[in-house]
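Need Solute-binding protein family 3/N-terminal domain-containing protein's 3D structure for a figure. Predict it.
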Amino acid sequence: MTLHSLIHSLGSALCMALLLCMGTGASGAESINSDALHAEIHVVTEELPPYNMTRDGVLTGMSTEVVQAVLKEVNVQASIQSMPWARAYDLALHTPNVLIYSITRTAEREHLFKWVGTIAASRWFLYSSASHPVTLLSLDDARDWQTATVNEDVGEQYLMARAFEIGHQLQSSNRYEFNYQKLQTGHVDLWISDELNAYYLARQVGDDPARTLVQSLRVKELEEAGGFNMALSTGTPDATVQLFQKALETIRANGTYDAIARKWQ
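Structure prediction for Solute-binding protein family 3/N-terminal domain-containing protein:
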């Protein structure tokens, strides 16, 4: 083989090796992105009107529409299942590739999920009935009264973390509307709830919340948590989480989020 032929052969081999390396790298990057985009995502939530609720057999609400917009942005088709909060929470805690909403981001929950971002603001209160108003100067004052909570929701977790006990000061149920009924019928003295949820449930039974509900104590610690969020289970790949985070940022930037929020104001 001549020197010229040898150089030509080595050059061709080198070029082929470089092309193979480049091809492998591109394929790997594409595969990672593809896996993140096409991972089977299970979406779970609860009946928390007006954020997430079933109306005429269709799941809707402000938070639901935001989640649907994010799913569309990442090009992931996923059905959303509504179930009691304790079940949804348990699934998101222990099953990979589960998206849960509307969930409050607290210090206790911080490392239990991979957080996508805030989808709705919230204001929390301990409510009493206007027919039996309760004056509270501090949270400790609530220990003398019976408070309605929802099983494993952030209000119940907040109170239990401060030594309130189910069966003692707390009466736990699995649906928010049950708690409004308990309050108005005198079965409990207080009810911990998000403001929009409380007002919506009052109006659903024909009541004027301004006349039937008293905001006995504002729970600012829950508001400081940043509102309601989307979160993914810890077994979800980071690449998937990043795609969802980017999608939420995108719908905020392009006006989609604001349009949804205005619709539900």
